[in-house]
Amino acid sequence: MARPMTERPIKKVVLAYSGGLDTSVILRWLKEKYSCEVVAWCADLGQGEELDPLREKSLKTGASSYVQADLREPFVKDFVFPALRANALYEGEYLLGTSLARPCIIEGMMKTVKETGADAIAHGATGKGNDQVRFELGAFHFDPSVRVIAPWREWDIKSRSDCIAYAETHGIPITATVEKPYSTDRNLFHISFEGGILEDPWLEPNKEMFLLTKDPADTPNTPQYIEVDFEAGNPVAVDGKRMSPVELLTHLNTVAGEHGVGRVDIVENRYVGMKSRGVYETPGGTVLHKAHRAVESITLDREVMRLKDSLIPEYASAVYRGYWFSPEREVLQEMIDATQRHVTGTVRLKLFKGSVQVVGRKSPYSLYRHDFVTFEKDDVYNQADATGFIRLNALRLRLRAMREAK
Predict the structure, then answer these.
(1) What local confidence, expressed as pLDDT, does residue 178 receive?
(2) Worst-scoring range by mean pLDDT, 227-236, 332-341, 389-398?
(3) CA–CA distance, 36 with 122 (Å, rounded to integer)
(4) Least confident of 69-73, 190-194, 378-382
(5) Across residues 31-43, what is the average pLDDT?
(6) Contact (Cβ atoms closer than 8 angstroms) between residue 31 and residue 62
């Protein structure tokens, strides 16, 4: 979109920087295109050693400064855990690891924009993907007049192969190659793989590609049992040991990954209108999702659970499409969190050969009553009452059948 003639020139840009192919090229391109300072801004969401070389790499590529924000604790506590309380799954399978990271990133990034007096922000999301929407909707939430530079919507580079060529021409160190150009995105909740060789939905991913989970064929031949404790819908301990949100998720990633738990290979519907293939590893998150539903199964009223489950597609779609900072997501969150007051208890799970199975659950607020459900003799339930219950519920069906019989 054309800028007004009176708009001030850009002197400083805060770039969402990962050190990967796209943002490394973008950093150099911004300096050439706008002759401006570029602040390379990176969020620590649990990428680990991937972050170690980024300061030096960004400065060598032309950044005026490098900022790394440790957002691990708020990411898990304020974004991952609320989504887990909602049992959020996009299209029935995707636990939204990337979708949850983007609003956390933009929240931290916009703080740096304000602190540094930057004129604009920039990101490496393509014009075909979801992340451009997530970044920019979040940015406008914090600053309605923020200026956004999205190079993939502006420059002449048309593909990641062109990016690789640009990087080689300008001496920018990269790890991607033309033969293996798929992209990855890692945080404490998951790692995603897409693009490149994964664009053919018929091809099975290479075994060597996975980083967080073992191939189920190579996992231990003995199952491992673990127990997860919840308080008001949030996981607080594993095997009786209380942990911080980051510690707990990190621990479960290791344990579940050892047993090959948490791999998902799906074709999903992007917000912009096309389908894309994504491969995800979410070991700890898969365990927590399963465990949370198990606690809810004995603590939530039937109709509350039915209503809450009906909200899952709406909540997940809002997050996936970039509307974390929206009134609809906030209202849904309030409704969901109101159901979590008694979602407290312990779940026992069995991890084995890529699967996670609930094998036990208990809660001080359990609605499960053995004296009501037993098949043995009881004095609390008159089975004859079921006759009237069934006939009343069948009335509309009988009336329809009577009409059709005429």
Answers:
(1) 59
(2) 389-398
(3) 12
(4) 378-382
(5) 95
(6) yes
Give me the residues paired with residue 235 across strands: 230
Two tokens, residue 57: 């790499």
Catalytic positions: 22, 102, 131, 183
Among 3-12, 122-131, 206-215, 333-342, which is the least confidently predicted range?
3-12
Q: Is the pLDDT of residue 269 over 90?
A: yes
Would you tell me the crossing angle of helices 160-169 and 21-34 to the nearest 10 degrees? Answer: 60
- Please, what sign has the CA dihedral across residues 234, 240, 242, 246? negative
Both tokens of residue 316? 């997940």
Q: What domains lie within the chain, and their CATH numbers?
A: 12-176 (3.40.50.620), 191-362 (3.90.1260.10)
Q: Which residues pair with 350 in a beta bridge?
A: 225, 357
Identify the residue whose tokens are 């979040």: 138
Per-residue pLDDT band at 151 (split at 50, 70, 90): very high
Residue 161, both tokens: 């192969």
**Given pLDDT bands bounded at 50, 70 and 90, which one contains residue 197?**
confident
pLDDT at 208 over 60: yes
Beta strands 234-238 and 241-242, pairing class: antiparallel
With the C-alpha atoms ordered 387, 390, 396, 401, is the resulting torsion angle positive or negative?
Answer: negative
What does the chain come to in residues? Answer: 406
Strand partners, 280: 192, 264
